[in-house]
Design a protein that fits this description.
Radius of gyration: 20 Å
Shape: globular
Number of strands: 8
Strand order of the largest sheet: 6-1-4-5-7-8
Number of helices: 9
Largest sheet: 6 strands, mixed
Number of domains: 1
Strand content: 15-25%
Order of helices and strands: HHHHEEEEEHHEHEHEH
Helix content: 40-55%
Structural class: alpha/beta
Distance between the termini: 12 Å
């Protein structure tokens, strides 16, 4: 197949992010997607009804579960920060920095246990859910007072993180591109002047909810406020992203044909 210079330019623009062309063909900014082994390990962990700390450590080691829950299929994953500070009073469990045509987004995540009830018999949030909702509300109020300050702080932290391949047990998070690229991409999508923030609580099991509880979760997630997801959704979204990675593998094969055609 012969490509004109104009067509080549259009194609490369489609698969780039921002003016700096940080992604480019075959170089997508994506956290590694969990495979079958990681998914089975996660299921075993959930079956053991682990404490929150064990879930935190597992997700730090397998950040693709967390990034796969957020945004669209082809967002640029810039970094995942573990236990990010929000001012002097609060600490989230994760901050995922992503960029796409919807903007530059810092996703703040609170995780709780997987095995406790989400609602009381009267339909009110049970202890764990009430605690998670209170925490994300506190974060929102704190960040809303100085959003650009917190945006800059998260980016500053992200730039100091090790690359994913260099992560160890002492890492405070991981990044998926060079530090200067994190800054450039974030700012290319409005992160310097109009950063966006989302708030998510992950806890409980969908399969353990009754119909009323499921309806309450759906209703909350439709309201536009903080999202509430169960651990099933965390695993399910990661699996769907794995299917999207299969599509990207096809793209990589196609890219070789493309490169040969334009040489």
């Amino acid at each position: 197949m012969a490509f004109s210079p104009e067509a080549e330019k259009v194609l490369r623009e489609i698969f780039s992010v921002g003016a700096d062309r940080a992604v480019g063909i075959g170089r997508r900014l994506r956290a590694p997607t969990p495979g079958a082994d990681e998914l089975f390990e996660f299921c075993q962990l959930l079956a053991e009804e682990p404490p929150e700390e064990d879930l935190q450590l597992f997700l730090q080691k397998n950040v693709g579960f967390v990034t796969g829950l957020l945004g669209g299929p082809d967002n640029a994953d810039l970094a995942v920060i573990f236990k990010p500070k929000i001012g002097t009073r609060f600490v989230a469990d994760f901050c995922v920095l992503q960029a796409h045509q919807g903007g530059a987004v810092a996703h703040l995540i609170e995780i709780e246990t997987c095995h406790e009830n989400l609602f009381t018999r009267e339909g009110k949030p049970a202890k764990r859910l009430a605690s998670a909702l209170k925490q994300v509300e506190d974060w929102h109020l704190e960040i809303s007072r100085a959003p650009m300050h917190f945006s800059a702080e998260f980016i500053r932290t992200a730039k100091k993180l090790p690359e994913y391949s260099e992560q160890d047990s002492t890492s405070r998070g991981v990044r998926f591109t060079a530090p200067d690229q994190i800054q450039n991409i974030w700012e290319s999508f409005g992160g310097r002047d109009t950063p966006l923030f989302s708030y998510t609580a992950i806890l409980g099991r969908w399969s353990k909810l009754d119909d009323d509880g499921k309806a309450r979760i759906i209703s909350r997630n439709r309201d536009g406020g903080p999202k509430v997801h169960t651990f099933e959704q965390l695993a399910r979204n990661a699996n769907f992203r794995l299917e999207r990675d299969d599509w990207h593998n096809d793209l990589d094969a196609w890219e070789g044909q493309f490169s040969s055609a334009i040489e």
